[in-house]
């Protein structure tokens, strides 16, 4: 976790808009001595920040290292509560496991857990998620909405819209959503979302949204078994992409959509989700535990359930399935 003093300094630089901040002003903001400010500036330099120091003007940050630790995410973050508490690890088994522990211990809403590598990343249905070091975004977010447990799947769809919007913001690429939780570019998967619950029978204690995004992997970085179905933003954009900028945009977009959802309900999110969906109006096959069936994807219900019209005109409501495009 970031120290409170270091977080105050980073927040001050975020609000400065690139202007110089004097050592005295930073000391007043952080509630410490100018010597302590100098020490933290040196620590930031050691961590890869490029800092300009000018006599009688003070300090300003010119460049941040390409990491996804707390400092890099905080510098420029424009949210009210998402990402204001950051738990960073260079390498973990799974950010979801840490998030479950922190949520059970009372971590505040908006806490994020981020790692530069996952050794046991996982997706839906227990599938493994390939999460190599320093190349992707491996992130979990803790939310605490006052909602009954059946509403939880809606949060997956909200997160999917936020991810698509963030990718558009930062890269200019145009992703699409494959129900319920895959983000595709050119029909190859670039992001997966896993939503898990800590709940009682009638109320949610915490929703933990895990996001795994392939950002700067090259084709050679993918295991042979997924090279035909997976891609990265760098492959599609033709250049590396700032992971910190993506996280900042993703948290900003998610917070904005989450507030809209809590204020106005799911309908505005439903319209956005359907506008990004790759399958709406297309022939698909849904592979479920009770069997496979095909039809035309019509959209999603207010509860986020996929509606499929079969050839005889009957409607199927799909709560959980793997979706395959037939055309």
Automatic annotation (TrEMBL):
Pfam families per UniProt: BPL_C, BPL_LplA_LipB, HTH_11
Claim: Ligase is one of the keywords in the record: yes
GO molecular function annotations of the record: ATP binding; biotin--[biotin carboxyl-carrier protein] ligase activity; DNA binding; transferase activity
Q: Which Gene3D superfamilies match?
A: 2.30.30.100, Bira Bifunctional Protein, Domain 2, Winged helix-like DNA-binding domain superfamily/Winged helix DNA-binding domain
Whether Transferase counts among this entry's keywords is no
One Gene Ontology term, aspect cellular component: cytoplasm
Stretches assigned to coiled coil: none
The record's CDD domains line, in alphabetical order, gives: BPL
Q: Name one GO biological process term.
A: regulation of DNA-templated transcription
* Entry's EC annotation: 6.3.4.15
Q: Which reaction does it catalyse?
A: biotin + L-lysyl-[protein] + ATP = N(6)-biotinyl-L-lysyl-[protein] + AMP + diphosphate + H(+)
Which residues are noted in the entry as biotin-binding?
118, 122-124, 189
- Domain BPL/LPL catalytic: where? 75-262
Q: DNA-binding residues per UniProt? A: 23-42
Which controlled-vocabulary keywords does the entry list? Answer: ATP-binding, Biotin, DNA-binding, Ligase, Nucleotide-binding, Repressor, Transcription, Transcription regulation
Please give the InterPro entries that the UniProt record associates with this protein: aa-tRNA-synth_II/BPL/LPL, Bifunct_BirA, Biotin_CoA_COase_ligase, BPL_C, BPL_LPL_catalytic, HTH_11, Transcriptional_repressor_C, WH-like_DNA-bd_sf
Q: Describe the task this protein carries out.
A: Acts both as a biotin--[acetyl-CoA-carboxylase] ligase and a repressor.
Xref: PANTHER family? BIOTIN PROTEIN LIGASE, BIOTIN--PROTEIN LIGASE
Q: Its family?
A: Belongs to the biotin--protein ligase family.
Read off the NCBIfam families from this record.
birA_ligase (TIGR00121)
User: What's the protein here called?
Assistant: Bifunctional ligase/repressor BirA
């Amino acid at each position: 976790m970031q120290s409170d003093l270091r977080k105050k300094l980073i927040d001050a630089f975020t609000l400065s808009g690139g202007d110089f901040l004097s050592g005295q002003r930073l000391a007043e903001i952080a509630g410490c001595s100018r010597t302590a400010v100098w020490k933290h500036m040196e620590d930031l330099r050691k961590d890869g920040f490029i800092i300009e120091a000018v006599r009688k003007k003070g300090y300003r940050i010119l460049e941040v290292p390409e990491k996804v630790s707390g400092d890099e995410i905080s510098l420029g973050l424009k949210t009210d509560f998402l990402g204001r508490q950051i738990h960073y690890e260079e390498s973990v088994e799974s950010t979801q496991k840490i998030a479950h522990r922190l949520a059970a211990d009372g971590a505040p809403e908006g806490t994020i857990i981020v790692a530069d590598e996952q050794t046991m990343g996982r997706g839906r249905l227990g599938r493994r998620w390939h999460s190599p070091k320093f190349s992707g975004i491996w992130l979990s977010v803790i939310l605490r909405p006052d909602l009954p447990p059946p509403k939880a799947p809606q949060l997956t769809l909200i997160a999917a819209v936020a991810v698509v919007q963030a990718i558009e913001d930062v890269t200019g690429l145009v992703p699409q959503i494959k129900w319920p939780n895959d983000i595709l570019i050119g029909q190859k998967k670039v992001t997966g979302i896993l939503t898990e619950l800590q709940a009682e029978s009638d109320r949610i204690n915490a929703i933990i949204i895990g996001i795994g995004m392939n950002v700067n992997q090259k084709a050679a970085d993918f295991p042979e078994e997924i090279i035909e179905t997976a891609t990265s933003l760098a492959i599609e954009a033709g250049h590396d992409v700032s992971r910190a900028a993506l996280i900042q945009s993703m948290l900003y977009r998610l917070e904005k959509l989450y507030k809209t959802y809590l204020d106005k309900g799911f309908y505005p999110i439903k319209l956005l989700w359907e506008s990004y969906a790759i399958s709406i109006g297309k022939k698909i096959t849904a592979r479920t535990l009770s069997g496979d069936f095909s039809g035309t994807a019509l959209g999603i219900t207010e509860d986020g359930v996929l509606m499929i019209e079969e050839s005889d005109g009957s409607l199927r409501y799909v709560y959980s399935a793997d979706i395959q495009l037939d055309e």
